[in-house]
Amino acid sequence: MPIRPLEISDIPRWTELRARLWPHESLGELDVEGRAALTAEPPLVVFVAEENRTLVGFLELGLRSVAEGCTSSPVPYVEGWYVEADWRRRGVGSALMQAAEEWSRTHGYTELGSDTEEVNRLSRVAHAALGFEEVETLVVFRKPLDPRQVRPQSRTEPYRPEKPPDKATDPVTRSVGPIAHRHQS
Question: Are 155 and 118 in contact (CB under 8 A)?
Fold first, then answer.
C-alpha cells in the first residue's frame, strides 16, 4: 500500500478521517485546525495511506519541546494516527509509523513520542507491537475559572480517597509532601 506525504488535494478526505478519529470535534473545526497546522512553524507532517486513489489512513507528526519519557528535544510526536476499520490489521498502521520513523531519522531525531487514552487497548497493543514502550499514565485535570462555564461530561468518577494517606508510610507524601505536581511545557 502506498504511503506518501499529504497533498493539498487530500485535505477534504483527510479532514473526514480526522473526524472519525476525533468525533467530538466538528468537521469545520478539524478542517480549519488541520490547514493551520500544515502551515505553522514547525508545520505538522502528515503521511497518508492510499488504496485505489482513496485515503484509508493517516499519521500526523508534530514536534514537541517535551514529551513524557523522552530525553531529547524537540521530539517528533504522533499527534494523530488513524486507519479505517476495514484496513486495520493489514499493516497499514505499521507502514504509516515506518514513514514517520524514517522522516524522523532523516531529520536527525533520535526518538519518537506518542500517546493514547488509557482505555484505548487497541492503540496500546499497536504501539507495543511497533516497539513503543509505555513510560507513564497521566490523569488530566480541568478547572473552569468562570463558574458560568458549562462543565464537560467527566469520563470517570472523581478520585476520593477513603482516608488521608499515612505520612509515615505513603511514598508520595513522605518524599515530596501531600500534593506532588509535575509541570512540563
Answer: no
CA distance 59 to 78: 7
**Residue 65 in grid coordinates:** 519541546
Whether the link from the prior residue into 74 is cis, omega within 30° of 0, is yes
Closest C-alpha among 20, 25, 27, 107 to residue 58: 20
For the chain, how big is the Rg over CA atoms in Å? 20
pLDDT digits (tens, 9 = 90+) for 73-114: 999 999 999 999 999 999 999 999 999 999 999 999 999 999
Tell me the CA distances in angstroms from 27 to 31, 35, 38, 52, 117, one per residue in order.
6, 12, 16, 24, 22
pLDDT in tens, 30-67: 999 999 999 999 999 999 999 999 999 999 999 999 99
3-class secondary structure, 173: helix
pLDDT per position as a tens digit, 9-32: 999 999 999 999 999 999 999 999
Short-list 59, 85, 81, CA closest to 5: 59
What is the DSSP-derived secondary structure letter of residue 151? P
Please list, in sequence order, all residues whose beta carbon lies within 8 angstroms of the beta carbon of residue 63, skipping any fewer than 6 positions away: 42, 74, 75, 76, 77
